[in-house]
Automatic annotation (TrEMBL):
Entry keyword set: Acetylation, NAD, Oxidoreductase, Phosphoprotein
Gene Ontology molecular function: any one: NAD binding
InterPro entries assigned: D-isomer_2_OHA_DH_cat_dom, D-isomer_DH_CS1, D-isomer_DH_NAD-bd, NAD(P)-bd_dom_sf
Protein name: D-3-phosphoglycerate dehydrogenase
Amino acid sequence: MPLKIKNVLVCDAVDKSCVELLQEHGINVTYKLKLPVDELCKEVKKYDAAIVRSDTKITAEVLAAGAGSLKVVGRAGAGVDNIDVPAATAHNVVVLNTPGGNSISACELTCILIGALARPVVPAGQSMKEGRWDRKLYSGTELYGKTLAVLGLGRIGREVAIRMKTWGMKIIGYDPITTEAEAKAAGIQKLTLEEIWPLADYITVHTPLIPATRNLISTETLAKCKKGVKVVNVARGGIIDEQAIIDGLESGQVAGAAFDVFPEEPPKSAVTKALISHPKVVATPHLGASTAEAQVRVAVEVAEQFIALNGSSPKYTSTAGVINKEALAHYQ
């Protein structure tokens, strides 16, 4: 049964292609960006659906306020950390995201950060701007022949593996779901975590943040790694224990780290700030999906799924980003 989405509230800035596509299919779109919670609670009951990116939090309070009218919340991006999915399900609100839209952009940033750990282009570039010629200070190492461990072999992890293999890296990986055959197709030797730790020169994480992956890289696991391991996180803040990285950098167990994501954004904690300011850390402000192409892709994918839920177009039928199928079943 179609959901009859007629009025959509856009809560965070999304590419205009999303709005245009919805309007072409007879859906009214209203922009009200970054509303305070009390105003969002008043507004949300006027709409069938809402679209968010990262700024707006769709909490249990907001979902309760929208009960009876709100049917769908779409996130233009991967993951739904800012949406209370159990509360949405309790109110029969379908939650969907755009899991594939950011993949290439997040993958490419990961590869760039791996390169920036091998060759210290960030501090070298800064030293040039400061008028110095510190050629001897910024010698690096080749990626060729080194071992890259990819933890999490979903879309992004596999894309990283394919690219870094062409640089001559040996790729090993772990994922509880991906089969050995799927890993092999992407040029990855699938191993257990215990087998991976002592082999990796570089480790990159590409998992969701769930209890099993929180502090997946910790003081305990770093102790099992090669001395001088380098670590990258373009996935979710909290997968890597930041204090463990700081300690590892000080002891020499860790030779470098690159972070695009943090447990709190913007960072406020003393630990995160110490990590960011460390000379052997390359830090970026959550840029994984920040490309022109990814922003168009995720915006369009949200709109396509709303149209599919309406059942109004034979062209758009996929609702692959739906997180809580049980809420969707309520309308069928």
